[in-house]
Design brief:
Elements: H1 3-9, E1 12-18, H2 25-34, H3 44-51, H4 56-68, H5 73-89, E2 92-99, H6 102-108, H7 112-130, E3 133-141, H8 146-158, E4 164-170, H9 182-191, E5 195-199, H10 205-213, E6 219-221, H11 229-238, E7 242-244, H12 246-251, H13 263-268, E8 273-275, H14 287-298, H15 302-314, H16 320-345
Parallel strand pairs: 1-2, 2-3, 3-4, 4-5, 5-6, 6-7, 7-8
Length: 349
C-alpha cells in the first residue's frame, strides 16, 4: 500500500462543501430534462466540458443554472442522496454540508420547512443505507437583503436538533461585509445556534475580523489571514479552525498555483487547519484529490494527513461523545492502514 492508497482508503470528514455546488453533470442533466430546462449542452460530456472552470462569473452562471433546475422538494431529496452517495464513495464518514435554501424559495417558491424535510429524508437514507452521517449548515448568501437573511436565520433556528448544525454566510465577499447580516447572526446566537461564516478568500483580513465579530466558530477559507500578523496571532491563540479549500483558491485566483498555496505556512504558524473541497465538480476536484495534491505538492507524510483529518473530526458540530467515538474509530482505522503500509514497505508478506 502506497501513501496514495492510504489516502484513498482512509476514513474522512469534510466540513466545507456546498450542496448545490456539488451537483454532478449527470445529475444536472437529469433534473434539466425532468423540468424541460435548456442547458448549454444535452450530453453528460457536454455538461462536463461546460463545467470546466474559467472564471468566477462562469462559476456563478453554472451555480445559478443548477439552482434553476431544482424545482421541488423531491428534487432536493434526490440531489442530496446523490451528493451523500458520492461522499460515501470517498469513505467520507461525516459531512457538514452548506445548503442555501432562500434561493429555492425565491426561484421555485419551495417552503423552507419542506426543503429541510427533504434534506433530512436524504440524510436518514444515507445513514441507514451507507453508514454516512451529515449535518446541515444553512447559509445566507451575502448579496441578499438583511430581511431575506433573517428568513434563513429563522429556518436555521427552527432546524436546531433536526439536522441543522449552524447558520452560515456565503456568496460574494466584495461589497458585502459580515456585519450586513449582523441581526441574523445575533438572533441565531441568542437561540443557541452556532454560526460558521465564509471569510478571507476574495477579501482580506478585514473580512475575517468581521466574521469573528459575528461570533463565527470556524472560518470558511480564512487563507488571507496571513496578511495581518495580529490576526494570525489571534487565530493561533484561540485555535479557531480554518476550512481550507486549496483547489478552489487556485481556480478563483486567490493564489497562482497549487504549489504556491500557503497551506504549509498556515500550518507552520500553528493555525488550526482542515482540508476541504468547496464545490468539487465545478473545480474538478474531490476531497480525496485535495489530500493527494497536497501530499504531492508539500511532501506530506502519513502523520501529517492523519493530523489534518483528526483536526476536522474534533471541530465538527457533533455532540462531544460522538466526536470522541469518531476520533477513536479513525485512530483505529489509521493504525490498521498504517500497518499495511509498514508491511509492504518492509517487504513482508
Amino acid at each position: 500500500m502506497t501513501l496514495h492508497d492510504f489516502i484513498n482508503a482512509m476514513p474522512k470528514v469534510e466540513l466545507h462543501v456546498h450542496h448545490q455546488g456539488s451537483t454532478q453533470p449527470e445529475a444536472l442533466l437529469k433534473l434539466a430534462q425532468k423540468h424541460h430546462i435548456a442547458l448549454p449542452a444535452d450530453t453528460v460530456e457536454g455538461i462536463r466540458k461546460w463545467f470546466t472552470f474559467t472564471d468566477f462569473p462562469h462559476f456563478i452562471q453554472i451555480y445559478m443554472k443548477i439552482c434553476e433546475c431544482i424545482r421541488t422538494p423531491e428534487d432536493i431529496e434526490w440531489l442530496t442522496r446523490e451528493f451523500l452517495a458520492g461522499q460515501a464513495a470517498q469513505n467520507i464518514r461525516y459531512t457538514e454540508f452548506t445548503f442555501t435554501p432562500h434561493i429555492h424559495y425565491k426561484l421555485a417558491g419551495i417552503n423552507g420547512h419542506d426543503q429541510l424535510a427533504a434534506l433530512n429524508r436524504a440524510r436518514e437514507w444515507a445513514e441507514r443505507e451507507m453508514g454516512v452521517k451529515s449535518g446541515i449548515i444553512l447559509d445566507i448568501s451575502r448579496n441578499v437583503t438583511p430581511e431575506e437573511g433573517l428568513w434563513t436565520a429563522d429556518l436555521a433556528i427552527a432546524g436546531m436538533g433536526n439536522g441543522v448544525v449552524a447558520l452560515g454566510l456565503g456568496g460574494p465577499e466584495v461589497g458585502h461585509p459580515p456585519a450586513k447580516h449582523a441581526v441574523s447572526f445575533q438572533k441565531a446566537r441568542d437561540a443557541g445556534q452556532a454560526c460558521i461564516l465564509h471569510a478571507g478568500e476574495t477579501v482580506g483580513p478585514e473580512s475575517i475580523w468581521g466574521a469573528l465579530e459575528q461570533g463565527t466558530v470556524r472560518i470558511g477559507h480564512g487563507v488571507r489571514c496571513l496578511e495581518d500578523p495580529a490576526l494570525v496571532a489571534h487565530l493561533r491563540q484561540m485555535q479557531i479552525p480554518l476550512e481550507v479549500n486549496p483547489t478552489s483558491n487556485i481556480c478563483l485566483g486567490v493564489f497562482p498555483r497549487f504549489d504556491e498555496h500557503p497551506l504549509p505556512q498556515l500550518m507552520a504558524e500553528g493555525l488550526y487547519v482542515t482540508i476541504n473541497s468547496d464545490d468539487p465538480p465545478m473545480f474538478n476536484t474531490t476531497l480525496t484529490d485535495e489530500y493527494h495534491k497536497s501530499a504531492d505538492a508539500f511532501g506530506w507524510d502519513v502523520a501529517t494527513i492523519q493530523q489534518l483529518l483528526l483536526n476536522a473530526v474534533r471541530v465538527t458540530r457533533l455532540p462531544q461523545a460522538e466526536r470522541q467515538q469518531m476520533e477513536a474509530e479513525f485512530v483505529a482505522e489509521f493504525e490498521r492502514l498504517h500497518h499495511l503500509i509498514g508491511v509492504e514497505a518492509g517487504g513482508s508478506s
